[in-house]
Amino acid sequence: YDAASAREMYADGCASSEARACVVVVPGLGDGPASLSYVARGSALEARCASTARALIRFELSTSYEGYGTRQLRDDARDIDAVIRALRVKFPLATSFALVGHSTGCQSICHYLASGYDSASAVDRIVLQAGVSDRDWYDADCGREVMREWVARAREMAPDDLMPADTPGTYGVATNARRFLSLASAGGDDDWFSLDIFDGSSGEGVESSKIVRKLGAGACARVDVRLVVSTADEYVPYDRDVVVAHNERIRDAFARVAKSARTHYIEANHDLSDMAEKDAPGFVDFVLS
Questions:
Q1: Rounded to two decimals, what is the model's pTM?
Q2: Is the pLDDT of residue 35 over 70?
Q3: What is the DSSP letter of 2?
Q4: How far is the C-alpha of 107 from the C-alpha of 77, rounded, in Å?
């Protein structure tokens, strides 16, 4: 889809030009087209797409693998735009385009919808699987005060300067100050789903959340939003009751700006790689219907 950089996309499911819909998978930090088992060839989702004239699309972002450390959400948004435009040519009969985001791919989708691309008018569904807070995870994993000190240090650096190799939260990935602040600071570009945004402790709340502010001018008005929440997500440092309450607030925020918004809870890990076989049909139904 991007000849200049030789990035490719891969079509499974109904991969012929007869496809009537496209389901496009947007991976998260450190991931690529082959990272997620639930969209792999032979998965329950891929089989359902094949039987219902849907093309299941996987592609490589410019931020895939370790590329995210020196790039931004706007790069992901540009890539999503390029993919949607390419798919409208490849699948001329397709009248429905769904974006399925995993982890930070959820923020990428939200940023894309908020960016005003013409191609977004073709998107009628977004599925946000494990849309979690990088900031909350870094605070839990590295220590809140430690992260605050490093955020303050990053704010004194030039945006394109690389953070020191021992910077907490970078996990060995070369990361510039701009992306570090985007991921680790309150209000950063990647900060869409943090707990304190929605529980009122930051002074924001549902009404003033980024979801309502950025997507409330019609960007999401014809879009059905589906939140897939893992209740055993290893990157979410809250108890199950808090996870459920938090995601219901996120659903409420989307309900204010989208055509519809629903949540689906699965007892599984962050990337659903341990999803029980019995849960797969319900997951697929939720994603596609």
A1: 0.96
A2: yes
A3: B
A4: 10
